[in-house]
C-alpha cells in the first residue's frame, strides 16, 4: 500500500545524469517542493559529502543516505532526487517499489563532460572516465530494475529532459 505522503516522482541515475538539475526544473514547473538526499545529508550532518567520505568512509555515507531516503519518502510530496549510489542499498530499492521512479540515463561521454574533474564527488577521484565507466556498468541494471520510466539525457538539455518527464507523468 502506498504511503499517505509520497513524492510525485523520484529521480535515480548516475552522477551527471542531471537528477539534481532536472528535479529543480520539475519542481518549478509543477509548483511543488524539491528535495535532494545529498542536500539533506549535508544539512543534517553539517558536513560536505566529500568530507563524510574522507573522514567516515563510504559505508557511513550509505547509512546516512539510506536514512535520508526513508525520511524523504515519509515526509515529502514533491520531487525527490536521490544520489547516484542510493540504489546500492537493497532496502532502498525495496522502498522504491511503491514509488514512481524515473531513471535518467546518461552515457559515458556525456557523464564525463558534465562532471568535469568530479569536484565534490569523491567516488570519482583518480581517473574520472574509468571510474564513471565502472559505476555505469555496475549500477545500470539496478537503475533499470527500480525504474517505472527511463528517460535518455544524452545530447539533450535539462529542460528537454524535464519536459519528457512531465509528459510521461501527465
Ligand atoms: N541534460 C544536460 N545537459 C548538459 N548538462 C547537464 C544536463 N543535466 C545536468 N547538466 C549539468 O551536469 C552537471 C551535473 O548535473 P547534476 O544535476 O548535478 O547531476 P546529478 O545530480 O545527476 O549528479 C551540472 O553542472 C549540470 O548543470
Ligand atoms: O554515485 C554516487 O555514489 C554518488 C553520487 C553523488 O550524487 P549525484 O549522483 O547527485 O552526483 C553523491 O551522492 C556522492 O558523491 C556519491
Ligand atoms: Mg545530484
From TrEMBL:
SUPFAM superfamilies: P-loop containing nucleoside triphosphate hydrolases. Keywords: Amino-acid biosynthesis, Aromatic amino acid biosynthesis, ATP-binding, Cytoplasm, Kinase, Magnesium, Metal-binding, Nucleotide-binding, Transferase. Pfam families: SKI (PF01202). Binds 1 Mg(2+) ion per subunit. It is an enzyme of class 2 (transferase). It is found in: Cytoplasm. Substrate binds at residues 38, 62, 84, 139. It comes from the Bacteria. Gene3D superfamilies: P-loop containing nucleotide triphosphate hydrolases. It catalyses: shikimate + ATP = 3-phosphoshikimate + ADP + H(+). Its main location: cytoplasm. Pathway: Metabolic intermediate biosynthesis; chorismate biosynthesis; chorismate from D-erythrose 4-phosphate and phosphoenolpyruvate: step 5/7. Its cofactor is Mg(2+). Its EC number is 2.7.1.71. Mg(2+) binds at residue 20. GO terms for molecular function: shikimate kinase activity. ATP binds at residues 16-21, 121, 156. HAMAP family: Shikimate_kinase (MF_00109). Monomer. Belongs to the shikimate kinase family. Catalyzes the specific phosphorylation of the 3-hydroxyl group of shikimic acid using ATP as a cosubstrate. This is Shikimate kinase. It comes from Nocardioides zeicaulis. The lineage of its organism: Bacteria, Bacillati, Actinomycetota, Actinomycetes, Propionibacteriales.
Amino acid at each position: 500500500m502506498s504511503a499517505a505522503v509520497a513524492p510525485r516522482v523520484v529521480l535515480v541515475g548516475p552522477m551527471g545524469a542531471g537528477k539534481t538539475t532536472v528535479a529543480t526544473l520539475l519542481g518549478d514547473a509543477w509548483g511543488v517542493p524539491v528535495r535532494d538526499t545529498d542536500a539533506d545529508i549535508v544539512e543534517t550532518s553539517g558536513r560536505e559529502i566529500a568530507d563524510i567520505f574522507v573522514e567516515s568512509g563510504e559505508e557511513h555515507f550509505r547509512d546516512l543516505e539510506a536514512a535520508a531516503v526513508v525520511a524523504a519518502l515519509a515526509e515529502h510530496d514533491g520531487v525527490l532526487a536521490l544520489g547516484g549510489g542510493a540504489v546500492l542499498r537493497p532496502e532502498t530499492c525495496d522502498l522504491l517499489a511503491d514509488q514512481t521512479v524515473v531513471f535518467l540515463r546518461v552515457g559515458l561521454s556525456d557523464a564525463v563532460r558534465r562532471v568535469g574533474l568530479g569536484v565534490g564527488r569523491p567516488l570519482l577521484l583518480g581517473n574520472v572516465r574509468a571510474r564513471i565507466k565502472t559505476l555505469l556498468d555496475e549500477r545500470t541494471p539496478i537503475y533499470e530494475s527500480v525504474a517505472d520510466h527511463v528517460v535518455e539525457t544524452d545530447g539533450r538539455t535539462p529542460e528537454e529532459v524535464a519536459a519528457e518527464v512531465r509528459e510521461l507523468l501527465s
